[in-house]
Design brief:
231 residues, alpha/beta, Nucleotidyltransferase, domain 5, 2 domains, five-stranded mixed beta sheet, 8 helices, 28% strand
């Protein structure tokens, strides 16, 4: 089964293609927040280079967030449209899981940290297990000092990764002694790898069952709520 992976939860747009033989093609580009203009041409370019037709796909995997609201919506909408048109199932995987998987060989607690804007970050914690990583804390959102407090409470050797860790590196290191390095963006190639393992178990869903992981209300909803409570 060929799986198309679509990853748009951060400033990077990534697509990948693979199956039982592993990842056979991937394409990643960072063009600010131009996800809508970049995603479809990226898919077309990758499929053309891999000499694969759309009707050869057996599943669509997508990053369901948390991350940038606009990027997530572009990726989810495109992935659902393709899956519905091709009548194939979908697999959704979180951006935090994807980042952690890229650092699965670390013997430290892996802490993917994604920039949530508004001086906040998304994060979760993972530990190494045979073949990958296992989440040991629920995904959270909050200011950097809450992340630091979470690290202090666990008091373990930690590896912080992701664009949030890169952006707030100084604040994190000021509050807690840990390593800040590793991948900045989730990988579409990792998305395909993780999705393939789930596809073997037929652990997939219909397109209408895929839900985004926001962790906080979208900005438009927050702004509307603020307007409603004003006198």
């Amino acid at each position: 089964m060929l799986i198309l992976g679509i990853e748009t939860a951060t400033e990077q747009v990534g697509v990948a293609l693979g199956g039982h033989e592993g990842v056979i093609a991937s394409f990643e580009v960072v063009r600010g927040r131009r996800h809508a203009e970049t995603l479809v041409p990226s898919i077309q370019f990758m499929l053309r280079q891999a000499d694969v037709e759309l009707d050869e796909l057996g599943c669509i995997a997508v990053d369901v967030g948390p991350g940038l609201f606009t990027g997530m919506r572009v990726g989810l909408a495109s992935a659902k449209a393709l899956a519905q048109a091709l009548r194939i199932p979908m697999i959704g995987i979180t951006s935090l899981d994807l980042l952690a998987f890229a650092s699965r060989h670390s013997d430290r607690v892996v802490v993917p940290v994604i920039d949530a804007r508004k001086s906040e970050v998304f994060w979760a914690m993972y530990r190494q297990v045979p073949g990958g990583v296992q989440r040991v804390s629920e995904p959270a959102v909050g200011p950097v000092d809450e992340l630091v407090a979470d690290l202090l409470a666990r008091s373990q050797d930690a590896l912080c990764i992701g664009d949030g860790a890169a952006r707030y590196r100084d604040e994190i290191l000021e509050g807690y002694h840990c390593e800040v390095s590793g991948p900045v963006h989730p990988s579409a190639a990792a998305l395909v790898e993780l999705a393939h393992a789930r596809a073997l178990r037929e652990d997939w869903v219909r397109p209408n069952e895929i839900e985004p992981v926001y962790l906080r209300a979208p900005d438009a909803q927050i702004n509307w709520s603020v307007r409603e409570v004003r006198p």
